[in-house]
Amino acid sequence: MAKLVLVKHSNSNHNPTQPAQDWELTPEGYQRCKPLAKRLAAYRPRRLFSSSMPKALQTARSVAADLENIPVIENPLLAEHSRRTNAPYGSLASFDARIKRLFEAPDELVFGDETATQARQRFQRGILSLIEIARPAENIVVIAHGTVAVLFAAHYNAIDSYDLWRKLKMPSFIEMESSDFRICQVVEDAGSG
């Protein structure tokens, strides 16, 4: 049965003076893409789909290079929750508190320019469009972001969203059945080993 693999990008530079959507991978982030590529090779992807945000796109391109230069296809619907330009990252504690609230109140505009529900619906449209173009039995590997990946997974599975979000390292991934989006496994740290 075909799988949908939602990958959280690798380590990015947490620069509080710059919007999070502009953050790029750190040297460690690039190094952690190598073990990620080895893990994703098991799914035999023909191509990678990626958010257009630099940290995801750089992760996808690095992984694709290690997977015999398979194509990377950008899809803006796969972007992280909001552009977050009106909510600077701030301290780790304040960011964490906003994310917790986002999961607790999905229809409330907590920060950014979309609610959690709106972000999940946008991401879901992106995922469904990929499934439509996939060949039968093709595994779909998406390099995206932790918040939207968890919002999507939680919509179809009885999980504690905030708890899962906190466990996902950079990079990590959630493997799901592409037919019903049931979670098969969660790899909390795919950048080690």
- Tell me the series of helices and strands, N- to C-terminal: EHEHEHHEHHEE
Fraction in beta strands: 5-15%
Rounded to the nearest angstrom, the radius of gyration is 15 Å
Morphology:
globular
For the largest beta-sheet, the strand count, sense and barrel status come to: 6 strands, mixed
Uncertain spans: none
Number of helices: 6
Note the quaternary state here.
single chain
Structural class of the helix and strand makeup?
alpha/beta
Largest sheet, spatial ordering of strands: 3-2-4-1-5-6
Give the averaged pLDDT, no decimals.
Answer: 93
Q: What is the β-strand count?
A: 6
**Amino-to-carboxy terminus distance:** 27 Å
What's the arrangement of secondary structure elements?
Layout lengths: L2 E6 L18 H15 L6 E3 L3 H13 L5 E3 L17 H13 L11 H18 L6 E5 L1 H11 L4 H7 L4 E6 L5 E5 L6
Parallel strand pairs: 1-4, 2-3, 2-4
Antiparallel strand pairs: 1-5, 5-6
Helix pairs in contact: 1-2, 4-5, 5-6
Structure description:
With 193 residues, the protein is α/β, with parallel strands linked by helices. Helix content is 40%, strand content 15%. It contains 6 helices and 6 strands. It has a 6-stranded mixed beta sheet with strand order 3-2-4-1-5-6. Strand 2, helix 2 (54-66) and strand 3 form a beta-alpha-beta unit. It is globular.
